[in-house]
Amino acid sequence: MFCKNCGAQIPDGSVFCTECGTRVQEEPVQEEPVAQEPIQEEPVQPEYVQPEYTPVEQPVYTAEPQPASGDLNDTPILITGILAIALCWTGIGGLICAIICMSKVKKFLAAGGVLAGKAKVGKILGTVGLILSILYMVFWVIYALYFIILAIVAAAGGLSNYSSSYWY
Ligand SMILES: [Zn+2]
Question: What helix, strand, coil percent values describe the chain, rounded to 5?
Fold first, then answer.
């Protein structure tokens, strides 16, 4: 609907214009004031202004939970959980996916989600992926150290071989 005063488009059923504040519709709660004396309507009016603002604010309120409903999507939890497992062998890659998975779980629960189905499976996969990723990171560090030590030993051995052959 449109405001009679300024012509702005306003939500249907609005009592006041959201742009200029002009009353654009008769009060929806008519039964009581109509039953009463018309003279009484004037002093009662300020009281009625308060509840009438609530429907105007309502669309703003209903717009807010929408990002929360995005957090209620359990598919990203499952996807990041699977990725954490799939990439755990890389160490850091799995760890990042597992951390994203955990934060998605946290937001999901904060948004009022119930830990069941995809969300539950995703959380378990993310947790396992987190542990495996940490283990793999430790493994890669040891693996790298092993080759560094091996190289040092080889270099030292090569030296000793050289010196022993020198002695022949
Ligand atoms: Zn207006």
Answer: 75, 0, 25
How many whole angstroms from 2 Cα to the centroid of ligand 1? 8
Structure tokens belonging to residue 98: 């597992």
Ligand 1 centre and the CA of 81: distance in Å?
51
Q: What is the pLDDT of residue 92?
A: 87
Per-residue pLDDT reduced to its tens digit, 60-112: 555 444 455 677 788 888 999 999 988 888 888 989 999 999 998 988 888 88
What are the pLDDT digits (tens) for 110-142? Answer: 888 788 888 889 999 999 999 999 999 999 999
Asked whether the beta carbons of 65 and 100 are under 8 A apart, the reply is no
CA of 20 to the centre of ligand 1 (A): 4
> Are the C-beta atoms of residues 21 and 10 closer than 8 Å to each other?
no
- Determine the straight-line distance between the first and last CA of the chain, rounded to whole angstroms: 105
64-68 long-range Cβ contacts below 8 angstroms, 24+ apart? 68/111, 68/112
